[in-house]
Amino acid sequence: MTKTRSLRWSLPTLLLAASANAADMPLNMTKGVTEISQRVYHLHMTIFWICCVIGAVVFGIMFWSIVRHRKARGVQPAQFHESTKVEILWTAIPVLILILMAIPATKTLIAMEDTTEADVTVVVTGSQWKWHYKYLEHDVEFYSLLATQKEQIANRFAKGENYLLEVDRPLVLPTGKKVRFLMTSDDVIHSWWVPAFAVKKDANPGFINEAWTRIDEPGIYRGQCAELCGKDHGYMPIVVIAKEPAEFDKWLAGEAERIAKAKAEEQELLAMNMSLEELMSVGERTYTAYCAACHQPSGEGLPGIFPALKGSSIALNDKPAHIDIVLHGRAGTAMQAYAKQLSLKEIAAVITYERNAWGNSTGELVQAADVHAVMQGKGE
Amino acid sequence: MSAVVTDHEHDHEHHDHKPSGIKRWFYTTNHKDIGTMYLVFALIMFFIGGTMAMVIRAELFQPGMQFVEPNFFNQMTTVHGLIMVFGAVMPAFTGLANWMIPMMIGAPDMALPRMNNWSFWILPFAFLILLISLFLPGGGPNFGWTFYAPLSTKYSGDSTALFVFSVHIMGISSIMGAINVIVTIFNLRAPGMTWMKMPLFVWTWLITAFLLIMVMPVLAGAVTMVLTDKYFGTSFFDAAGGGDPVLFQHIFWFFGHPEVYIMILPAFGIVSSIVPTFARKPLFGYASMVYATSSIALLSFLVWAHHMFTTGMPVFAELFFMYCTMLIAVPTGVKVFNWVATMWRGAMTFEVPMMFALAFIVLFTIGGFSGLMLAITPADFQYHDTYFVVAHFHYVLVTGAVFSIIAAAYYWLPKWTGHMYDEKLGQWHFWCSLISVNLLFFPMHFVGLAGMPRRIPDYALQFADFNAFISIGGFLFGASQLIFVWVLVKCARGGEKATAQVWEGAEGLEWEVPSPAPYHTFETPPVIK
User: Fold this and answer.
1) Which domains does chain A have, with CATH numbers?
2) What residues does the Cytochrome oxidase subunit I profile domain cover (chain B) (predicted)?
């Protein structure tokens, strides 16, 4: 008895709760923050209202007929069954409406595809499951990864405001400038989508696609990968911070300096040896961020798709091969090349971790210099 | 149109030497038996695919991962799509074709009865292979029912070969079914059954059958290239070997877009049969319906790349495919206008088949509207691969194709079983389905416009309330279909005796044979005036 009552109450309560909070979600396409995105929005609304009017007329006539022309009212059915005149009429009118609709759509489309005369060019490269951004005219490039904690996804921690829409290093773009994107991919097809710019373009491996935007207002804009790209397709967000041009230039200079400094540090590191403890701690962090999605936190992989590292003969015996795979990936498989994604220190640490975690107790240490040696083609 | 029915009850007895028990079903070459098997198979697949949809909706009920892993989630979306398209909708239409086409054109059976048996019996094995692959290490196909390369080649699991093999078998089955329909319609029409006297269901199926034999080999080619790319070192879709991943999409959608019409043209035929019956008025614009169906079929070969606007085509190509796609709205509109004109000044009654047909007209048109919106390329950039698309194709496939199949089942059930179905239960089934299906799919439009991508197992918090709502709609729609099974079982086991005509306004040869239709009908062709 109490059970049925609680069931009876729970459904309306839930629906009420849903409608109360629904204000959080916009019910329509965003107008966005670019001239193009606003034109797209207006096209969307125009075609929407055209459909509404046609729908109202057609369904109106249909429901009128359902109410009036029913046998229960004692009507006699008419027997007419063709009229070339009306057939021509209801073929011609839709054609006219469609032509009227096609004109603004064509203009907007041509404007969207005109990627000439760009002020800034960013190469966007998708890979499973992160984005890489490279400012073509500058020495600035970096990876952008999901920043939401695994514990939030697993419902162990409360979810933050930007759950699944936050990254460690956002793409920064200047406002008021024409930014051209060159999209490509390192593995499968991804699709770079930021609704506020009305830019959605596939990143195809081995090919380069173009798109562009000119952002009107500074702000933070979020998007996601829109093309199914494997297991963690849902965990590949995009965050763009739009800054005034002066601030953007300052940021760009700062980034260039930071990257140069990191490179210099890397050279110094070659002469240093790290302890097992330090390597294992950096290694575990790197493993969790870059490797665990496929090889799993337990190192057991997913049988049939991603091989296990736990007990694998490469992780136990063949150290040069191990370093080589992490650096250069494995052709014909989902294993990526990490040489340009991770620092020498991180690669050394993660290999050390893989050779000493989950009962893989080789006791071996891999140092940045070892990785560097394999990279230079003079492995042990 | 009238026919002289020469069959007598006792004539059948000595003709009907069919084996008893299970052997009857294995060996049968009778179009009615095979039709029944197709329909039962489709229903079973509908529930298996539906169970997968329930897993998807359970996981999406709340943000965060609750029940399944992302990899399994992708397997569910993939196999749900494959089963619903190839296992539920297409076999259901083939089942209806088997049952109804010979009876509608006054033929004694399908033209190629042994092939008919074979085309059905390979189907269960195709789906057995597909379903077994889910239990292999690494699981079944997880790259979406569209299996875009290189996700399905270099980056797919070990079970891909089984997926390819299974799709091959489904394709062979469909091609054989299509050949049978074409040969039957061309050769076995009763004397006097001229082309422009054929019922629209026969016309739409004839055109569908041509679409099938034209595009199923293309699908077979696509899966074969996936197979050789993955296992035999070719690089059709790999830029490193001179291939192109976008080529895959062109090939797939050259199959895929006509495939969409394969799943809706027979539905047009069904609705064109049901509406005149219950309006007690002949179909308005019969000839224009035939021409509209043919134009849709022709246009379906010119619009495939509207699925690919974001892949980076030249502007010229984008414009071409946008214009052609918009053009499809014209013949589709003609169909809807003709149905409404058929109802106009009729004398309508609202039995369950009519209710589903009316719901089809309204809800399929809503799917058509969102289709028109998707055709506008600049707007498509925002809609593409979001829940807006999911809403669109579920409106045309569930409230379109599936509703038409359900309508057809109610419409012809008395002819098949000899009993009237339970009208009250049927109305319950209709109203529960109608309300829940809209709770399920209508909010998806808004979720998509708000920016939720499709095929994700987890989502940002703003989408949470709508997704909970959608999931509840999904569970209710799933549960509502249990009423359908109840109606079917009840009707098969007994009920009020059906007359030969069954429905007051029904016209056509199938209504001139007794109910249930005898095992053999029209051994002597009827005379058509």
Assistant:
1) 28-70+79-114 (1.10.287.90), 120-261 (2.60.40.420), 270-375 (1.10.760.10)
2) 25-529
